[in-house]
Every structure is written in structure tokens, then in C-alpha cells.
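Following up on my earlier thread - several people asked me to post the actual chain instead of describing it. Fair enough. Here it is, all 304 residues.
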Amino acid sequence: MSSSLVLRSLDGASPLGFLAALGTLRLLDLALPADRPRMRWARRSGFRPEITGLSLSEQELCNVLAKAPSAPIEELGVLGKNITVEPSKFREFAERARLNARREDRRTADFAACFGSEVCINEKLDDRIQYTAFCFITGSGHQDFLATAGSLCDKVTPEHIHEALFEEWRYAEKGLSYGWDPADAREYALRWGDPGPEGVRTVWGANRLAMEALPLWPVIASRQRLNTTGFARISEVMQFTWAIWDGELNCDSIKSLLSLSELQREIIDRTLFERGILEVYRAQRVRIGSGANFKVRFRPARAI
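Reply from S.P.:
Thanks for posting it. Predicted structure:
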């Protein structure tokens, strides 16, 4: 056992890897608050997250994560299978979340704050709410955002989590992907055959952990437009930007770091490196396909 563990399978240059790393830390913070777990990034064939402050073996860590107080699926299920709901329905959900928070359970409120807002309406979707930029699946193709979360909570075992954190990703599981792995893009124009009939092969454990990170990127309404922390339109393309840091940080500090306005500029200010940031990555959020058959995915990130 060690006071730190490197999650050697998670790559800080991948949107899914980065989200899974932060989801791991957040779950540990909920499960073991007295231990005050923290995270830094180690240079090991790229940047790999290192959890500090815990004396756990790899298997013990996976067991803790599998049993941790995760996304409250029953409460989130009030919205249905997706978060693309009418303003009145989301308002009711947010009010229930507020009452739960007063009873010292902030989990539902934290997800409500990152899912959307009833004050920003998407007129193109029958006057439903605008929602987080992390929501890539909204019901088309039998892919539902909250239903996927529920299925992953039911199906993912400590073994799935161990693969996601410590083993080579085999992409052995079919379906149940949020689309955050650039490998999910599989653009037809760049392949020999149509990838559609093959279905998506993914890593359930990584997707399960990544969902838990979303409360670190809350949304905010501004001039009738919903903005998601970490996303900005740069060079006419919506892009997700995140930072890799040096020191040992807890969830609250990481949440503040991710919201730095300097990260959303087209040209990154090098003074960020003087503040402990080792690298900044940026991935395009794009539509792939045409008409009603399009999919939203991340392109591979680049270091900026």
C-alpha cells in the first residue's frame, strides 16, 4: 500500500481520461472526506493523474469507488431519460435538489447546477432548456444521457474500474458511451467502411467515472445563453479547454482552476505556468454527420 497511486491508464491529454481522473477524485472525496484526497499530475509517458493522501492498494481503491455515493440516479431520474426537458420540469427538479441540499446531501444540487437552467430556452427544441455542452446524447439513436448513467451505475464493477484506471483499455464493452472519447468519433469520410453498423466499443469504467466529474463544470446563464465552464467558441468552433497542474489540489481548488478565464483565450498567457500549470489542452466539440443523423463528439485534443 502507498500514500499515493498513479492512475496509469488515464491520459491527461484525452477528454475522457481527464474527466475520469476528476470523477475518481470527486468520488473519493465523497466516500472518504476525512482523508482529504488530492490530485496532481505525474509525467509518465504523458501526464497521468496521481491520487495522494490515501493508503489504499489498487484493488482497495477500485472497491471504494464502486461503493462510493455516486450520482443519485433515482433523483436525477425525475427528469426522465434525458436532460432536454421543459423549463417547468427542470425548475421542479432544481427545487427538489435545493431541498435535498438543505438536508446535507448536495449531490443532486451539484448535478442540477451543471445540467442546465430553466431560464435559458432552446427554441429549436420545442422550447426546452439549454443544457450543458458536455451532453452529447439526447435520445436519438436510442442513446439517452441519464439512462446511460443509470445503466453504467448498475453494470460497472470494481473490475471495470480497475481496467479503466490501471490496465490497457481493451474497448471490450459495447454501447453506454457519452461520446467523450475522441475514439468514438469514427468519421465515415476517414474510414474504409461505414462505422455505423459496428456500434460503439468503449470502456465502461472510464465513462462511469467521467460522469461523476461534471459537477466541477457548472453552467451559468448569461444574456439568455447558457455557458458551460471550460467551453468557449474560439476561431468559430466550440472548444473544451482544460489544464494540467503540478501541485496537490483538492476538488474545490480544481473547480476554481478549471474556471479561470485565462484558459478560454485563443492565446494562452504563459504566466499560467508560473502559477503551477504544466500544460493546457484544447479539444474541438464538433458535429459529425448531416441532417438528423449527426453526432456530437470531441476531436483529439492538442497541447496549446
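The longest strand covers residues 277-288. That should answer part of your original question.
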